[in-house]
Amino acid sequence: MAESVTITDNRSGESIEIPIVNGGIEADAWRKFLGDIWFYDPAFTTTAGCASAITFIDGDEGILRYRGYPIDQLAEQSTYLEVAYLLIHGELPDAEQLEKWREEITIHTFIHENVRKRFLEGFHHDAHPMGILVSAVAALSTFYPEAKEISDDETRHLQVIRLIAKMPTLAAGAYRHSRGMPFVYPDNELNLPENLLSMMWKVAEPRYEPDPVLAKALDVLFILHADHEQNCSTTAMRTVGSSLADPYSATAAAAAALYGPRHGGANEAVIRMLTQIGSVDEVPAFVDRVKAGETRLQGFGHRVYKNYDPRARIVKETADQVFEVTGRNPLLDIALKLEEVALNDEYFVSRRLYPNVDFYSGLIYQSMGFPVDMFPVLFAIPRVSGWLAHWLELLDQGSRIARPRQLYVGADERPYVPVEQR
Ligand code: ACO
Prior knowledge:
- 52% of the residues lie in helices and 5% in strands.
- By secondary structure, the protein is mostly helical.
- The strands form 2 sheets. A 3-stranded antiparallel sheet has the order 3-4-5. Strands 1-2 form a two-stranded antiparallel sheet.
- A hairpin with a 2-residue loop joins strand 4 (63-66) and strand 5 (69-70).
- Helix 9 runs antiparallel to helix 14, helix 10 (232-241) packs across helix 18 (375-396) and helix 14 (310-326) packs parallel to helix 17 (358-367).
- It is globular and about 80 Å long.
- The protein binds acetyl coenzyme *A.
């Protein structure tokens, strides 16, 4: 075999040759040959936990495609709603399918009054909106107990629609509660990003008129954040989904994973970093501190991309359009200078550290008026379509329950000692 690896078991002297398929080898052949010898791989950097036909990434080349379609083409020509259909169904919809999808999502934007009264508004006044979102999504499983019927196609489909449709409503509701403002019901004359803006910002006007440039920018950001294959939150979705839990419980677990600063919180860290740097003149000194290992350059580097993150380029262009409406974010100059210095510095070049999607997205959200604690919530709104696409794929694959091995490094057997003798 031209593309293969040979494994020799030095205990028996036997060898097997395993073909390399798509850059990897299948554990099945390894397992059959080596019996109970497992692979120690913390953080799964060398383990593919599943086969997936949803998203393709080539980190060296800076390529990202959903279902084969390049991310830049989708960002320029599609809408988040259409991309959500693509992720879930595997193909772009025709005009009729798109209209039916739009209608289905639109009629499910409202949440049960008790989700609002008992859950969203039951939280303490200063609760973090992401904490509220995670809990409210989990609570939905009790409102839709039929969601447990995950082998029924129609029931599955209905929960997918509900989750995609209700995320903006829950997100805006979480924000309004955390600011002591009254809940705004969805306006189903508006499209998904417009509706989110209305539910976020509407005050006393009879109808909120969203700025089309800002709504479009939000839609582009939603397209860019809709999926990113086996990241931490998607892995959580698949792991919980593999136990055959209902989709609300699995989505709540995925959202919880997204809450962490290493994942959905990075754009917030970028804003804090830029604010702390304070001025363009301070950039070289800050970069020196990064190089000395005292701090990290937030929004730079990626586990997968070792080239310019293709999403970062689109976000940067979107930022320019947004700033024409909102005025230029004063932190932008610091960000541009940081990027320029880093891209010409040996430390970053040799480690292949480039801006990631989060380097500029926080600047856009901040300029649009979103507080930093809403950033992970804004990430979760579109990512739910990616999570659900993976959940559906997992069920269709008839996957077994996720159950990794472990390397035990604890004590050997020892006798129990009664407390008075310790
Ligand atoms: N600033 C400075 N140095 C960095 C950075 C950074 N942002 N990222 C990596 N490095 C350095 C590391 O110090 C290390 O250097 P060394 O070899 O001299 O020890 C080398 O580059 C490799 O770094 P790792 O930590 O091994 O890279 P890993 O793949 O584990 O981490 C991560 C990826 C977490 C994204 C990292 O680059 C980072 O912390 N970036 C800042 C946070 C961030 O922007 N996160 C958003 C990711 S995108 C998303 O989740 C949507």
